Amino acid sequence: MAYIGQDLEYGALEKQTLTGNGVLTTFELNYIPRSATGLLVSVGGVIQEPDVAYTISGKNIVFTTAPAAVDIFVVFLNTEYMVSSVESVDYMDYQTGTGTGNTTPLVLTHSISNAEDIFVMLNGIKQTPDTDYTVSGTTLTFTSTVASGVKVMVLYLRLQRQVGVPLDGSVTNPKIVSMDAAKLTGSLPSSMSSDLTPQYQDISTLGLQWANVENKVALT
Description:
single chain; 220 residues; mainly beta; 2% helix
């Protein structure tokens, strides 16, 4: 079946097949559509009108009349992606990689506790959390082997950070030029302070004459 409009640049439309029996009016969908108009529904080869022939209730499609025992298919034109909880964020990170012929093609740059908190795609195809992949900290594991060369993209949907506190590695050299001394607080790391031990030189090697008068040092 052809669709009107521009081809998809990323990803693909997903299809689900349902089975009617002339009694059931409610069917569970694989994804949560944002609205009835986010679906293309065919019953026996006849396209159904959104909010008339069917409505949406959460993850369910509810038909006004029970479909007969004919072929039913649903094409998802848009879906709603749910996370474990809603946070106010001002930052979203992403990560890309390629398949390496195993189930762990990349190490996550952020520690994740819930599979729903990342959006994962393989060659532009959205993967289902806890079905196609699982997460544990920075380990992303796919159920099936990811073939070499397959493009992997991970979007981090739920990242928390404290206002005014930059992420690790986010401050570059140009951002710290001309920093006020007042901004420098605390102590240096041991790896730096060990290289900054005081260096002394015999004053005689400088060709200078000196005298100590009333606890004051004068150099000539």
